[in-house]
Structure formats: structure tokens, C-alpha cells
Write a structure and sequence with these properties.
Keywords: Methyltransferase, S-adenosyl-L-methionine, Transferase. With about 290 residues, the protein is an alpha/beta fold. The protein is built from 10 helices and 10 strands.
């Protein structure tokens, strides 16, 4: 609560209304709220009820069902956004030690023409993941050698995407970034901005942001060499998770790599895939189009 704001006591959330929010979130985003999340719903929607002066959760639920824009705001409020720079370091180590050296070697022995690398960061949250990828790729695949990098960063939340587009982060996050990347790509604020850092113009030019709902997959075009969808599928149930995986695979190039979070796997879902290392997958040769 901001200074000067009056205290707001949220109304009670009935079991019937909780089930209504539960079904709406599942229908719209494929995310299933367990009964243990009832307090989370109250906490995250209370501010919106206060802003709208809505007297009850049932009234707000009816409004969200009828109003497309309000439904997006509801999804923004209920979705969890937690991320870090270079989260799950072994994925970035795998890129630097095995994947990128192999790509450079293939380019050297090839025609010498420009190689375009396409990456999809699905569930990008506030942008730390796509900018971590941008640092690694730009360092190892320099433009001077003819490499073109295109990173699509997507999320369900319009509010979070607006924040990510700023490429502006608290300077206290600097410790998450390897020092050579920090020096090369991040700008430290001065004066009133000294508590902030920002990705430099070159890095910002590599990443584009777009709202995409993995529950329907609309808005994503083409195939990608790398797809990062980490710590997103844990919020889906078995059915919506299987559907989301199929959508991801439909956009993975024949030799591309899919990266999942450490608590996620394709067990029971990935007959088309084989594991390269834990939580990193590629398509089986016999099924690649």
C-alpha cells in the first residue's frame, strides 16, 4: 500500500467465486489454480477491486467475464512472475561450451553467408532471460562475423511486458550477471538513476517483445533454433501442458533445442523428442519435418 492510501479490507471470497476464477484462468491461460491458492487470489485481486470500487468478488468476476480488457488485467494480476539473469546456469554453460562453438564451426566450413539465429523466450517475465540470452549470443556470435540474432520474448502479462521493454533493472541484480557481460552490455545509471542499470542499445535491438498466450499460441510465426520455456509449464495441468508442448514443438526447427525448467520434463509428453541433457531436448531424426 502506498503512503496516503486508505486501508482496504477485501470482501470474502466464496468457494463458488473461487471456482469461477479458477475456471476462467484455466480456460484463458491453461493455468490451473489449486484450492490452496484461494488466499493468493484474494491478495492479488484486492487492489483491482479497490480501484474499481467493486463491492464483491462475484461482481468483479462477472465484469471480467464480459469485458475483454478487464479479463487481461485479471490474468496480469493472477500470473506469477519470478525470474533472474542467467537463471539455471547450466543451460547457459551448455550453450557456451557446446552449442555456439558447433554453430561457429559449421559456419566456418559452410558457404560463409550470414547465419540468422532465431530464439523464442516463452514466459519471459520482466526480461532477464531474453537479455541473458542476448548477451551470450552477441558475445559468441558477433555481428562483425555476419551473425544476425533475433530474439522473440513473449509473456501473457501486458503489464510485465511493458516493464520488460524498458530493459531497465535494479542495480542490485548486477551480481547475477557474469562480470565480462556486465561490463560489455549493461549501462549503470547516474544521479537519480544510480539504483538502476539498463541494457545497451545493441542488446535492446536484438530483443522484441510480444504478448502470447501459450494456451492458444497465436502470434508466433516461423521456427526457432532455440526455445526457452522454463518454469512455465509447472503451472499447467497434464492436458494443457501437453497442448503447450505441442505448440512449442511446432515452432522448433528440425535441429533446434527446447529448454525447460529444472522441475519440468517431457516424460509422457515427448515421444517426438530426445534428451540432449536433463531438461534440454531436440527432435528425433525420424520425426523432424
Amino acid at each position: 500500500m502506498k503512503q496516503g492510501e486508505a486501508f482496504f479490507e477485501p470482501p470474502p471470497l466464496s468457494e463458488r467465486d473461487f471456482v469461477g476464477f479458477q475456471r476462467l484462468l484455466y480456460r484463458e491461460a491453461g493455468i490451473w489454480l489449486s484450492p490452496a491458492k484461494k488466499a493468493l487470489v484474494v491478495g492479488r485481486l484486492a487492489r483491482r477491486l479497490r480501484e474499481l470500487k467493486t463491492p464483491s468478488f462475484s461482481a468483479y468476476l462477472r465484469q471480467a467475464e464480459k469485458d475483454d480488457l478487464e479479463r487481461v488485467r485479471l490474468l496480469d494480476a493472477l500470473c506469477t512472475h519470478e525470474t533472474h539473469f542467467f537463471r539455471e546456469p547450466r543451460h547457459f554453460e551448455f550453450l557456451e561450451r557446446e552449442v555456439l562453438p558447433r554453430w561457429r564451426a559449421q559456419k566456418t566450413t559452410g558457404s560463409g553467408e550470414m547465419r540468422r539465429v532465431r530464439v523464442w523466450s516463452a514466459g519471459c517475465s520482466t526480461g532477464e532471460e531474453p537479455f541473458s540470452l542476448a548477451m551470450v549470443l552477441r558475445h559468441h556470435l558477433p555481428a562483425a562475423e555476419g551473425w544476425e540474432i533475433d530474439i522473440l520474448a513473449t509473456d501473457l502479462s501486458t503489464r510485465i511486458l511493458e516493464q520488460a521493454r524498458q530493459a531497465r533493472f535494479p542495480v542490485k541484480k548486477a551480481h547475477e550477471i557474469p562480470k565480462h557481460y556486465l561490463r560489455a552490455f549493461m549501462l549503470r545509471g547516474v544521479g537519480s538513476q544510480e539504483a538502476w542499470m539498463k541494457a545497451d542499445a545493441e542488446l535492446r535491438g536484438l530483443v522484441r517483445f510480444h504478448r502470447v498466450n501459450l494456451n492458444d499460441g497465436h502470434g508466433v510465426v516461423g521456427r526457432f533454433d532455440l526455445i526457452f520455456c522454463r518454469n512455465v509449464l509447472i503451472y499447467f495441468d497434464q492436458t494443457s501442458r501437453a497442448q503447450a508442448v505441442e505448440r512449442l514443438l511446432s515452432h522448433l526447427s528440425p535441429s533446434g533445442l527446447l529448454f525447460l525448467g529444472h522441475s519440468e520434463s517431457l516424460v509422457g509428453l515427448g515421444a517426438r523428442m530426445r534428451a540432449v541433457m536433463p531438461t534440454v531436448y531436440t527432435q528425433r531424426a525420424s520425426t523432424a519435418p
